[in-house]
Amino acid sequence: METSFSEGLIRTPFLTPYPTALPDGPALNESNPVTGTRTKNSDVFYTTCLNLLEWSFTREEGMILYYNPYSRAVVTKWMLDECAADYETHFIDLEKQEQKSAEFLKINPSGKLPALVDEETKLFENAAICLYLADKFPEAKLAPRATSSERGRYLSLMVYSTSQLEPAMGDALMDMETPPQRGWTDFETAQGVIESELGDGPYLFGERFTAADVMVGSMLLWKKLWTGPSKRTRIAAYVDRLEGRPAAMKIGG
Ligand SMILES: N[C@@H](CCC(=O)N[C@@H](CS)C(=O)NCC(=O)O)C(=O)O
Q1: Per-residue model confidence as pLDDT tens digits over 70-107
Q2: CATH of the structural domain 144-243, one choice from 3.40.50.300, 3.30.9.10, 3.40.50.720, 1.20.1050.10
Q3: Whose CA is nearest to atom 12 of ligand 1?
């Protein structure tokens, strides 16, 4: 179900943690202009109970993805769908700069998409969200367990995708040089790292698809959309494989 941005904010539990007294409701001892009687304790109690009842019916339990189909929020959506998670999307109009509104900045102080709200938990940055979801849904088996010997490589690839691969790809797309002082590598090197981590695949962890494939793969999927299939055959085949997944990332969807 999709609801509007403002509706979502009003219904987001952490912004309205409990019902406040009715703004137009009666104050204690105030004279009622219609009946002329004074407001009693029981009147205030009754109004508060009604508020509580209304709040308990309108309150959302599921996760809320702040979303625009033409943004990096499609990465989080892919991950949520791989987890078979129950969630709602709230559309954020980037042209209207809704991502910079005071209400949205309370969710994501960087003023960007995506953002995910799970009850009291607020998350931003795709990598953080994917790490969170993989751990929240262990039954989806999208992350090696914390005690597994593969956990270190998994965490490294999750961070590599966003701290090295993504900015390197940005530089390449904008025809910019990548001096090493910037803290990330050039795109050719980054693709070489991914190819060697992929090995014979089919995924980064062999037969097992993980959140690392969502993070690394989403970058390579964007690249294919912008500039066509990779000349590196191993990467091109990997991207085709990812695109073939039923939940695969869809831009504009
Ligand atoms: N590293 C961030 C990137 C977030 C990002 O740049 N989002 C863009 C949309 S693709 C955005 O919200 N831009 C609007 C703006 O900066 O005002 C992530 O992966 O979550």
Answers
A1: 999 999 999 999 999 999 999 999 999 999 999 999 99
A2: 1.20.1050.10
A3: 112
Atom of ligand 1 nearest to the CA of 110: 16
* Cα 111 to middle of ligand 1, angstroms: 8
pLDDT bracket for residue 6 (50, 70, 90): very low
Name which of 204, 222, 207 is nearest 158 in CA terms: 204
The reported pLDDT for the residue numbered 45 is 57
What pLDDT is attached to residue 13? 38
**122 CA distance to ligand 1 centroid (A)?**
16
Q: Which protein residue's CA is at the shortest distance from atom 13 of ligand 1?
A: 112
What's the CATH class of domain 1-142? Answer: alpha beta
Q: What is the pTM of this model?
A: 0.79
**Burial class of residue 217, CB neighbours in 10 A (0-12, 13-18, 19+):** buried
Please state, in angstroms and rounded to a whole number, the distance separating the CA atoms of residues 216 and 193.
11
Query: Which of 5, 94, 105, 113 gets mutated to test ligand 1 (max ligand atoms within 8 A of its CB)?
Result: 113
Q: Could you tell me the residue ranges of all domains in the chain?
A: 1-142, 144-243
